[in-house]
Amino acid sequence: MLTTQSKKILITGGAQGMGRLFAEKGVQEGAHIILWDINEVGLNRTAEELRKQGGQVRTYTVDVSCAESIHRAAEQVQNDVGDIDILFNNAGIVVGKNFSEHSSSDIDKTLAINSAGPMHVTNAFLHGMIRSGGARIINIASAAGLLPNPKMSVYAASKWAVIGWSESLRLEMEKGGHDVKVTTVTPSYIDTGMFDGVKAPFLVPIIKPEKMAELTWQGMKQGKVYVRAPKIVGLLPFFRGIMPARAFDFIGGKLLRIYSSMDDFKGHGPSREQPGT
Q: pLDDT per residue over 104-122, tens digit each?
């Protein structure tokens, strides 16, 4: 079990939502917190509140859709604090509408933030994490990366990419004998406001953010390969793999009502916070 006291923890999308919850847990355990977010006002507000709790917090205004912004900020972090120990790739957005309604900007921004962003951030810090050892990389993917869903086509694609990359990275670290553990997190819908209007599928309840943050935090400390919630999410790849496509469509669409869960989606607009699914 990893001890996080005095560890340097970098969290993207750290101004609110799950990112803020991870930061609070780090502060409680005596870690040094590094918050990245594009929302400078929210970032400073969160940092101030964490410092009132006794936290050691640094903030950097970063656009994770831009590789140049990422590498510039990463260089600043290296100069300020050196190598980091734990990385939460948490930032993300969702555009919940039919693919035919997506603009080119919707597509490019979703893939840049959700897929390329975690890769660029990790790439900027990975050599130092390998050098230091005992490191953790936590990639917040989604249950949407495990199965299709109407009104989530580009979002699902972005999370499928994260899962494939995250798992491949984990295997590379293991094959290379590096002491860097990679955890892939695949939650269903989380009640952070980013998915306002969604209807919980049958047997797949909407998760409270505090619960998901705790599960993820403990999974990180234990070096788990996957953190999946609720438990039924872990069964989806198995059933989808062994069943004919139309049979799974019937179960997912008619019985579990997964395919209609986004029918009344509202959300709260694009956000760098990643709440799951």
A: 999 999 999 999 999 999 9
Residue 271 lies in a domain: no
Domain span holding position 77: 8-255
Q: Which bin fits 215, alpha (ψ -120 to 50), beta or left (φ > 0)?
A: alpha
Q: Is the pLDDT of residue 55 over 80?
A: yes
Per-residue tokens: 14? 């750290």
3-state helix, strand, coil in the chain (%, to 5): 50, 15, 35
Counting every residue written for the chain, the total comes to 277
235 in a structural domain: yes
CATH of the domain at 49: 3.40.50.720
Tell me the C-alpha to C-alpha distance, in Å, between residue 59 and each of 34, 90, 106, 236: 6, 15, 27, 38
189 is catalytic: no
Residue 273 falls inside a structural domain: no
| Assigned domain for 268 exists | no
What is the number of structural domains in the chain? 1
Identify residue 162 by its one-letter amino acid code: V
What are the start-end ranges of the H helices in the chain? 17-28, 40-52, 67-81, 104-111, 117-132, 153-175, 209-222, 236-242, 245-249
Strands 8-12 and 180-187: unpaired
**Is the model's pLDDT at 174 over the cut of 60?**
yes
The dihedrals phi and psi of 112, each to the nearest 5 degrees, come to -65, -45
Q: Which amino acid is it at 163?
A: I
> CA–CA separation, 111 vs 130, rounded Å?
27
> CA-to-CA distance for 56 and 34, rounded, in angstroms?
9
